[in-house]
Amino acid sequence: MKKVKISIRICGKTATANLLYVDKSGKTHRSVKQVEKGPGDTRAAVEIKALLAGLQALREPVELELSAPAHIGSAVKNGWLDHWAASGGKKYDGKPVKCWELWEQVHEHLQKHKIGGIHG
């Protein structure tokens, strides 16, 4: 299984998902997916959109290492995302998860991959 690292960064109105992997011959490949902040988007929403863009670029199941802001890393690492998906986008206190439509898509894409590490 190929190992891919996705790093999420934001600068101004643009968030990027940097994808890195090493092929069988040892050559390093890099791909960058950028997302622009739209009207009404929060910083968190743009970062989630960048992660989603990176996940959508993956064409096969991979072992995924994720370096992302704390709100993304915690949601994945601590199992919150799985809980939110099981409860239809609700937090433990019953309140709706912000940006649930985006998180739902992220959750769907993550199910295809093995999570090897999360930083953030």
TrEMBL record:
Signal peptide: none annotated. InterPro entries: RNaseH-like_sf, RNaseH_domain, RNaseH_sf. Residues 14-120 form the RNase H type-1 domain. Gene3D superfamilies: Ribonuclease H-like superfamily/Ribonuclease H (3.30.420.10). It comes from the Bacteria. This is RNase H type-1 domain-containing protein.
